[in-house]
C-alpha cells in the first residue's frame, strides 16, 4: 500500500523504528516485487507468520525479515482442556464455491458415518458465518449428538474450546484458538487465496500433516483414530511457538532501545 509506505518513510525520517509484525506479504510479478523491496527500506524489521514467506522475501534481498508465530500463540488459557471424548467443533466461512461446499459436506459425512466421534458442535466466531454454519448443521442434524451453538463465540467465552479434541475449519483463528486450548486443528481447504495462508502457517509450526488441501491425499478418520498422538504433538507445538513468539517480541524491544 503506497500510503502506508509513505507513512513509514515519514516515521523513518523522524528517527522512529517501525516493525511489521505477524504479516503475510504476498507479491506477484515484477511490480509487486519492486513495491515490496521499496516498502521494506522504511521498516526496521518484518516478521512474517510463515517460513515460506520469509524465504520469498529474502530472495528479494529483503534482509531485515524473520519468522514470528501468529499472535494467538501468546494467549494462555486460564483453564485446562480436560476433554476425554472425541468431541469435534466445526466452523466454516462461506467461500462461495459449490464444489468446495460439497467437499466440506462429504468430509463431515465421512466423520459422522465412521462413528469415530462422540459429539459434533457447529459454531461460529464471526457473525457473518452464522448462516453457512447453520446450513451445515441443518444438513446433518439427524445424526446423533450433533448440535448447533446459536450464540456467536465471544472472547470472554473462549473456554468453549476446552470441550473438544478436534476443530475442523477453514478459519485460521478458529484453528489456532483451538490449538492453544490443546485441541487438534484440522484445516479443510480449497485453493482460495483467503485461506491459502493457513497452509504456510501450518507448515511452519510443524502441522502440515493435518492440512486437507486439494493437492494431497487425506484420511480424516485416521487422524481421529490417532487422537492421542496428535494431541501430544499439539501441546508440544503450542509451548514451542509461545517461546519463539516471546523471544521475538523481546528482541523488538531490545532493537528499539538500542537504535
Tell me the structural class: alpha/beta
The number of helical elements comes to 9
What is the count of β-strands? 8
Query: Per the principal axes of the C-alpha atoms, what is the gross shape?
Result: elongated
SSE ordering: HEHEHEEHEHEEHEHHH
Main β-sheet: number of strands, strand sense, barrel status? 5 strands, parallel
Radius of gyration: 20 Å
Q: What low-confidence regions span 5 or more consecutive residues with pLDDT below 50?
A: none
- End-to-end gap: 26 Å
Helix content: 40-55%
Give the overall pLDDT as a whole number.
90
Strand order, largest beta sheet? 6-5-4-7-8
Describe this structure in words.
This protein is α/β, with parallel strands linked by helices. The chain starts with a helix and ends with a helix. Strand 7, helix 6 and strand 8 form a beta-alpha-beta unit. The chain is elongated, with a radius of gyration of 20 Å. It has helices spanning 2-13, 29-40, 51-59, 98-114, 130-140, 172-179, 193-205, 220-225, 227-257; strands at residues 19-23, 45-48, 65-67, 87-91, 119-122, 146-148, 166-169, 184-187. It is built from nine helices and eight strands. A five-stranded parallel β-sheet has the order 6-5-4-7-8. Strands 1-2-3 form a three-stranded parallel β-sheet, with helices on one face. The mean pLDDT is 90.
